[in-house]
Amino acid sequence: MLSQDELKTLVGQAALQYVIPGEIVGVGTGSTVNKFIDALATMKDRIPGAVSSSEASTQRLQALGIQVFDANEVGELSVYIDGADEIDGRGHMIKGGGAALTREKIVAAQSRRFICIADESKRVEVLGRFPLPVEVIPMATQRLVRQFEALGGQARIRLKDGQPLVTDNGQHILDVTGLQIHEPLAFESEVNQWPGVVTVGVFAHQRAQVCLLGTASGVQTLRY
Ligand code: 5RP
To answer: Is the CB–ligand 1 distance for residue 208 below 6 Å?
Structure first.
């Protein structure tokens, strides 16, 4: 029986097949992506570099000798590789467990294909079991808490060392429990236009086209 960590290593390595030699690759954030970054180092001489979705991934990429480009320096990327907190049967995801959702969505939007790498614990029928991360402007926090309450959700500000966690963009994160997101596209569109929301962690407009799912019987390739 493979551990969750071993499953993450397997899918991180499997994602190398989607990296196109000679092209810049979009890189997500998280423990699964860290395995991908480690694998990517083995082919660093065959790619110009990466566009990164967080300070943490940038540090790891650079430490391994992979050049990191600013998103504004490059055009459309052929592929973006990232993990997920949940993925449903249509490639819709919840993301942001690592607080990097805004930059993740930006790099995903700049990429033609989203390849999700995940272990099978992330596979769900309906999004919402994992608390939904929402990056917010601090001034709007309490009003947004009430807006989520009206939808049946309980929103809590994410803390780090007893203080509100501050994202790479200088904002805060609400984690919302109690939601069942049956219509991810409509939900994402609605919440995104609430004043004070920077990014909602539903990735439906930027859904995955492929998921490499680590299972007890190996890596399954799911296409959407
Ligand atoms: C970070 C993310 C990650 O992709 C998500 O939290 C999954 O992380 P992990 O691979 O560590 O389980 O969205 O903001």
So the answer is: no
